[in-house]
Design a protein that fits this description.
The complex is a heterodimer.
Chain A (H helix, E strand, L loop, with lengths): L8 E9 L6 H4 L19 H4 L22 E4 L11 H8 L4 E3 L5 H9 L9 H13 L4 E5 L4 E4 L2 E4 L4 H9 L3 H5 L3 H9 L12
Parallel strand pairs in A: 1-2, 2-3
Antiparallel strand pairs in A: 1-4, 4-5, 5-6
Chain B lengths: L4 H9 E4 L5 E4 L2 E4 L5 H9 L10 E4 L14 H17 L2 E3 L9 H7 L8 E4 L13 E4 L2 H10 L1 E4 L3 E8 L8 H12 L7 E6 L1 H4 L3 H10 L7 E4 L3 H6 L26 E6 L6 E3 L7 E3 L13 H14 L14 E4 L7 H11 L9 E4 L4 H9 L2 H8 L2 E2 L21 E4 L14 E4 L2 H10 L10
Parallel strand pairs in B: 3-4, 3-6, 4-5, 6-7, 9-10, 9-12, 10-11, 15-16, 15-18, 16-17, 18-19
Antiparallel strand pairs in B: 1-2, 2-8, 13-14
Helix pairs in contact in B: 2-5, 6-8, 11-13, 11-14
Classes of the chains: A alpha/beta, B alpha/beta.
């Protein structure tokens, strides 16, 4: 599961998840956070929504129903990904096979975490999001296509533009490692540091 | 050109522009905990990279450790705690672990140690890093990939936020605390209302707050989506910088760390301080709150079918009925702790309510001081005696504990908690656990009566 390279088009079954304020505690409950790796988080993703207390699948939950069990795209409610900074939420969603969430706006840390892991988060108007929710819920084959470079979403009769900032789009398309890329600017960082007075250089007492 | 405090902070830390529209900003100080940093260290190592500036980082154990005893942690938490210590030693980073008198919740110990001063930029793999805005510092939470980025480059790729100002006019009334002010702001602006914004808090009700109150405000600003929270530096801030182990080591001069008088904000909210009452949350999002004198909402209060559905879902999870008076909500557990409300000032407020009173029968009441230093100070002031005499369990170790239940303080399915914490999400304090957020004094009052109650009736 090292699928960092984003294709320019993401295509797949879209599942409607219309709840507002879905937080990262719900996306990845704390009992799955006791780990020092990024792996093995697919089962934990949306665990309390997908499974009941005895570990049985909840048949009423959208991702447990056909055809949405194979969803690659989620159409989500407002403020998806709010709360804790835990990147485990994004790792888990990717491991579950989710490649994009379409919403009206996302919590900031979640948005940045998504970019680092090739999870696309196209932002659309409330009107378009609601149309996509209806489409994902009712279409015979709720297949949605997201073209990253032209910033267009296509779903049946629906064709709509989406917002995505340039840096995120570039990062997704290139599958770039931001840390390595930033080190190309090492001399600029050194220059900045050398301009700092001694009282601006934090040194923590051990 | 006039500038907001936020713009001054961003400009002072900008290293360079990047071709894709982002900028690189310099991180003066970076804090790590045991659960969001392991994959950052391993990621950095797998790329053959080194820590750019080891002395600019601090690691601290707070999320997973048990707080009920000094005994060795269980095998699972030990895995994370040992991993943090090993990574710190290997990379030459300061480590404040269990048993260290400087240990405690990240956002409680950093000010205690004098590690935040106005003008600084602080990042941490924890969403409540907004706390440092109380000092006129730019603090914000980051994910693990960004923790790796800071370790290896001492910078972050950054996009300037829009600026919002929230003004609390006039004074608040007796019994209303900083927690009630910020809960009111979350209620008014909404849980995602400040997504994409850096929020500055202003107005006389904010100016009147001590540093603990200001930290509570900035801490919970992330619950309205703010990526940064700020309060202008004044004499109260300056006074708080003295007398800590790192005091006088750092000074970020060159700017006045306040917004210019005519600075323009992209969005403004104004709330009357006098109109704020002690609040409680009734639902599963921090913006689902009501005054303690009010009733739980009913479907009639909402127009849209979506809002009615959300209400129904929240009420079902919370085990409440429409229109039920807030004060009729009975509790099983009272919890005082967390990076929002576990400072010495919070413990004093709760102790005032508890002095000469008893926790109601059947209520389990727990207090977890935010840091080892806070605990020692509280014990010296006699607060421990007051809590214990009232029937509270006084925890000997500091940590996040039942705020997010990553240690063994897990609320059971259906258990109802009056909590001085910051999130009432489904499952936050345990699977099926029901959280009501409120001020520490309100938690103490609820512990005494066994149900949610107006703290003003206790004074």
């Amino acid at each position: 599961m090292k699928e960092k390279h984003m294709k320019k088009t993401i295509k797949g079954i879209a599942a409607p998840l219309s709840l507002a304020n879905v937080d990262t505690d719900v996306i990845m409950p704390k009992r799955f956070l006791i780990t020092i790796t990024r792996e093995g988080l697919a089962d934990g993703t949306f665990a309390d929504l997908r499974f009941n207390n005895s570990g049985q699948k909840r048949p009423e939950f959208i991702l447990n129903k056909s055809p949405w069990a194979n969803a690659k795209i989620l159409i989500v409610g407002d403020n998806f990904g709010c709360g804790s900074s835990r990147e485990h939420a994004v790792w888990g969603m990717r491991q579950l096979g989710i490649k994009a969430c379409i919403g009206t706006g996302f919590a900031g840390i979640f948005y940045d975490n998504a970019r680092k892991n090739g999870l696309a988060l196209p932002i659309v108007s409330h009107e378009i999001r609601d149309k996509l929710l209806q489409f994902a819920k009712n279409a015979n084959s709720p297949e949605v296509s997201i073209e990253i470079d032209t910033q267009t979403i296509t779903a049946g009769e629906i064709s709509a533009p989406f917002e995505m900032d340039e840096a995120t789009r570039t990062s997704l398309i290139q599958g770039r490692d931001d840390t390595l890329d930033t080190l190309k600017y090492a001399s600029a960082i050194h220059d900045f540091e050398s301009s700092l007075s001694d009282q601006m250089r934090v040194s923590v007492i051990k | 050109m006039t500038k907001t405090l936020y713009d001054k902070l961003v400009d002072a830390h900008k290293v360079c522009d990047l071709p894709d529209g982002d900028m690189l900003i310099y991180v003066d100080f970076h804090i790590m905990n045991e659960y969001t940093s392991p994959q950052a260290f391993s990621g950095m190592e797998s790329k053959g990279l080194k820590v750019w500036r080891p002395e600019a980082h601090l690691t601290v154990v707070d999320h997973v450790n048990a707080t009920r005893s000094v005994e060795a942690p269980d095998a699972q938490s030990k895995l994370l705690i040992d991993n943090l210590e090993n990574n710190s030693i290997k990379h030459g980073i300061a480590f404040y672990g269990l048993g260290d008198p400087r240990q405690g919740i990240e956002h409680v110990i950093v000010p205690e140690q004098g590690l935040v001063v106005p003008g600084m930029l602080i990042a941490c793999g924890d969403s409540h890093t907004t706390t440092y805005g109380a000092f006129g510092a730019l603090g914000f939470g980051i994910g693990t990939s960004e923790v790796e980025h800071v370790l290896a480059t001492q910078t972050l790729r950054y996009k300037r936020m829009k600026a919002m100002r929230v003004t609390i006019q006039g004074s608040t009334t007796l019994g209303v605390t900083a927690k009630d002010i910020i809960m009111k702001v979350v209620q008014v602006v909404g849980a995602g209302g400040a997504n994409g914004f850096a929020v500055e808090f202003a107005g006389s009700a904010i100016r009147d707050l001590d540093m603990a109150g200001r930290m509570t405000i900035c801490n919970m600003a992330v619950e309205l989506g703010a990526r940064a929270a700020l309060i202008a530096v004044d004499e109260i801030t300056q006074a708080a910088l003295k007398g800590h182990s790192h005091s006088d080591q750092f000074a970020f001069k060159g700017e006045s760390w306040v917004s210019d008088p005519k600075a323009v904000f992209d969005k403004e909210f104004t709330i009357s301080g006098a109109a704020i009452e002690p609040l409680i949350t009734w639902g599963t999002s921090p913006d689902q709150s009501i005054s303690i004198t009010a009733n739980v909402p009913s479907a009639l209060d909402y127009v849209s079918p979506k809002a009615k559905m959300a209400l129904e879902r929240s009420l079902q999870y919370m085990g409440l009925t429409e229109g039920q008076p807030a004060q009729s909500i009975k509790i099983d557990t009272a919890f005082i702790g967390s990076c929002t409300n576990s400072r010495i000032e919070d413990l004093r407020e709760a102790a005032k309510i508890l002095e000469g009173r008893q926790v109601a029968e059947g209520v389990e009441a727990i207090v977890v001081p935010g840091s080892a230093l806070t605990r020692i100070r509280a014990e010296a002031e006699g607060l421990r005696g007051i809590f214990e005499t009232a029937g509270f369990e006084w925890r000997p170790e500091a940590g996040c504990s039942m705020c997010l239940a990553m240690n063994d303080d897990i609320a059971m399915d259906g258990e109802r908690v009056a909590s001085s914490t910051n999130r009432n999400f489904e499952g936050r304090q345990g699977r099926g656990a029901r959280t009501h957020l409120m001020s520490p004094a309100m938690v103490a009052a609820a512990a005494v009566t066994g149900h949610l109650v107006d703290v003003r009736d206790f004074r």
